[in-house]
Design goal:
By secondary structure, the chain is mainly alpha-helical. A hairpin with a 2-residue loop joins β1 and β2. The mean pLDDT is about 80.
């Protein structure tokens, strides 16, 4: 659901290149919004890893693979405007892997010490 909203937001903002958005007295081009949506989606993927563990990791990895495929198709169609998205997706994938492995190592350490401490207390 969240990923669908992010992809819709990226598609909408990417198709309105010259349009501007006015907030107070500032003018913001719609072309800046895909980066914002991609960052929000990356945050959501990382949150899924922290909350759901292994399932979140595989789900986030699948979403990123789908994102790579869509970006690859755009590059093959000679749309080089998606290159920043490719680099952001690479950074997101590396972040997802590092956070999952770090989180898994912390959980293994906590389980190890939680099983070790009661044995020490009883002896």
């Amino acid at each position: 659901m969240n990923q669908h909203l992010c992809e819709y937001g990226n598609a909408w903002a990417g198709n309105s290149r010259g349009a501007m958005w006015t907030i107070s007295h500032s003018v913001i081009p719609y072309a800046t919004l895909p980066g914002v949506f991609t960052s929000i989606c990356t945050f959501i993927l990382i949150t899924w890893i922290v909350i759901y563990g292994k399932f979140g990791f595989w789900f986030s990895t699948a979403i990123l693979v789908i994102r790579f495929i869509r970006l690859g198709i755009s590059i093959v169609n000679h749309n080089l405007m998606v290159l920043p998205g490719v680099f952001m997706s690479v950074v997101a994938l590396v972040s997802v892997i590092l956070i999952y492995h770090s989180n898994a190592q912390i959980i293994r350490t906590q389980v190890k010490y939680n099983t070790f401490l009661p044995q020490e207390a009883s002896s």
